[in-house]
Structures are given as C-alpha cells and as structure tokens.
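Backbone-to-sequence.
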C-alpha cells in the first residue's frame, strides 16, 4: 500500500513538474532564445558579458525599454490593440523638447539647467499625451481600428518632424542632460551606473506593480480577455482604451528625453528605427497578441532579448544592412512561433 502511494506521489510530482515546464515554455519561449544568444556570444567574444558592455547596453537602448512599457498596456487591452505611431511620436517629441531646451538655454543663460530639463520633459510628455489621446478617442469613441488610426498618427508625427526641423538635426540641450548618460549616477568603485540606465529600470518596476497589483491593471487585463465581461463588471471599456493609448503616448514622451540624453542631436528620421524594436520586444516576450494575457516579466525578457540581439550584432561589427536582415529574420521566426504558441497556450 505504501509502495503504491509513493509511486502515485512520484508520478504526481513528475506530472506537476512537466506541466509547469510546459507552461513556462509557452509563456516564456524568449528565455530559450536569450540563452542561445548568450551562449553564442560567450564563444565568440566573452567581453560581451563585461560590466562595461552591460551598462552601455542598458544606457544605449534605454528609450526602447520605456517605449515598450506603454505598448504592454495597449497590447493587453485587446481589441487588436497596437500603437504604430510610437516610433515617430517619440521622435517628434524628442525634436520639439530638444528645440525647446535649446531655445530656453540660449534665451536664459542663467536659468537653472535642471529646470530647463524638467520643462523639456513636460513638453515632450504633453506632445506624446496628445497623440495618445487622439489614438485612444478614435479607437474608443469612433471605433476606428487601432492599426489604421495609429498608422495615420505615425504619418502625422513623421510629417511634423520634417516640418519642424526642415530635415536638419536638432541639438543644444543642457550639458547636464547628456551627463545623465555618462557621469551622473551610482558609483560602484571605479564603475559608474548612469541614471540613463537606472531610470528605465525603476519605471519598469513601478509599472510592473501597477499592472499586477492595482485595480487599473486588473481592469486592463479583464478588458483584453473579455470586453463584455468587463462591461458587466462595471468597467468602462472605452475609458480603458483611452487610458492605455494615453499611457503609450506619455511613455513615448518620456522615452523621447533619452534620445538627446544618450545620443545628443535628434535627427528627424530617428523615429523610423524605434517602432519595430519596441513592438518586437513586447510580442517576442509572449504578451498575447489578442489581449488579456501577459505580464511585465514576459515583456522584460522580450526587451532584454531585443537589447542583447542588437548589442550582439553591433559588438560583432555587422553593418546596418546586415543587422536589419538578421533582425527581420528573427522577428519573422518569432512571430510565427508565437502565433503557434498562442493556439497551444490554453490547452496546457
């Protein structure tokens, strides 16, 4: 009898382990992809794992992290939610905020540079919020497909970038802004972890708490999984749609400040290279493409994978055309894989 009980107990433990492993594999397939990249880079160049390179990666791709956070809420809200405008909205916000900071610095040489940076941030977030509000109202009140309205907003932001800059690079922000990506931060011995690497991580953690621990986060997930049930539960689905697109715009505005911070000058074309890494990070992480399923942990692994992939290609000296080719192959492969996983996930 005892032998039979032990056998059943062992079998039950094996089943639980196997089911847990399958659930992990379906929720976080990006972990295996991340391991592959790390193993390959470990053989090719071990300096890839140096503290200096890790800090450089977090700093250089900080705006991708922040932009992707806003997209997580859009994707989870369902309704085929996507924000195609986020790249150029980030670019346009960066252009206007940098120009604003430059004009303030020139007109008021004695003005506190941190006050100038705060005003630049307010301008940037306001622009992002206006685009987000436009997208949200169009989706929630006029029932325009997110793909269509955000594509239109993308073209609007792109046009405004060129009108505002006449095709020239904008620069001239306070030096204190660029110091946030180099000299201002946490000192650990001779190593400096700049604020440009720390701030995105802090924001990411805060928004992970908002998504998982607050009523609003639960409402977003319920809206994405079943809008009718959300309505019956007293949730205003229209309000949720407006808020998530507004959030996406605000985070685009925040991300915009990291462009002059980390790069210096803001090119009017900068938005062209921002959209796909942000979208890919969220979807590759395993956030459901139909909404209602996913969390910040998944998005975090997706962001980490995209950053490692981009950094690895740069580290190995690949030119931009080769990088774009490799990047496209990975996205096509992972999107196909995740489409298959989407059908299998709830059968576990």
């Amino acid at each position: 009898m005892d032998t039979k009980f032990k056998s059943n107990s062992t079998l039950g433990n094996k089943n639980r382990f196997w089911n847990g492993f399958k659930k992990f594999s379906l929720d976080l397939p990006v972990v295996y992809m991340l391991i592959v990249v790390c193993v390959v880079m470990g053989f090719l160049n071990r300096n890839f794992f140096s503290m200096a390179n890790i800090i450089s990666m977090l700093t250089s791709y900080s705006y991708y992290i922040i932009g992707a956070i806003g997209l997580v809420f859009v994707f989870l809200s369902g309704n085929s939610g996507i924000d195609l405008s986020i790249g150029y909205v980030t670019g346009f916000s960066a252009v206007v905020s940098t120009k604003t900071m430059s004009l303030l610095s020139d007109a008021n040489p004695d003005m506190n540079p941190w006050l100038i940076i705060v005003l630049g941030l307010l301008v940037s977030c306001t622009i992002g919020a206006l685009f987000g509000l436009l997208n949200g109202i169009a989706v929630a009140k006029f029932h325009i497909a997110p793909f269509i309205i955000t594509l239109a907003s993308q073209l609007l932001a792109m046009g405004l970038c060129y009108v505002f800059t006449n095709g020239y690079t904008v620069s001239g922000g306070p030096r204190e802004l660029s110091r946030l990506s180099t000299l201002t931060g946490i000192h650990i011995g001779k190593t400096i972890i700049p604020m440009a690497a720390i701030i995105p991580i802090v924001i990411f953690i805060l928004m992970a708490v908002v998504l998982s621990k607050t009523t609003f986060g639960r409402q977003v997930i319920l809206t994405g999984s079943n809008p009718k049930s959300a309505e019956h539960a007293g949730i205003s689905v229209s309000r949720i749609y407006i808020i998530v697109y507004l959030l996406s715009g605000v985070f685009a505005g925040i991300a915009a400040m990291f462009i002059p911070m980390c790069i210096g000058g803001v090119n009017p074309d900068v938005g062209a290279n921002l959209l796909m890494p942000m979208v890919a990070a969220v979807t590759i992480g395993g956030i459901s493409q139909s909404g209602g399923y996913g969390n910040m942990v998944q998005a975090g692994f997706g962001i980490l994978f995209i950053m490692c992939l981009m950094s690895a290609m740069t580290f190995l000296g690949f030119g931009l055309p080769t990088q774009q080719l490799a990047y496209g192959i990975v996205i096509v492969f992972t999107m196909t894989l995740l489409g298959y996983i989407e059908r299998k996930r709830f059968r576990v």
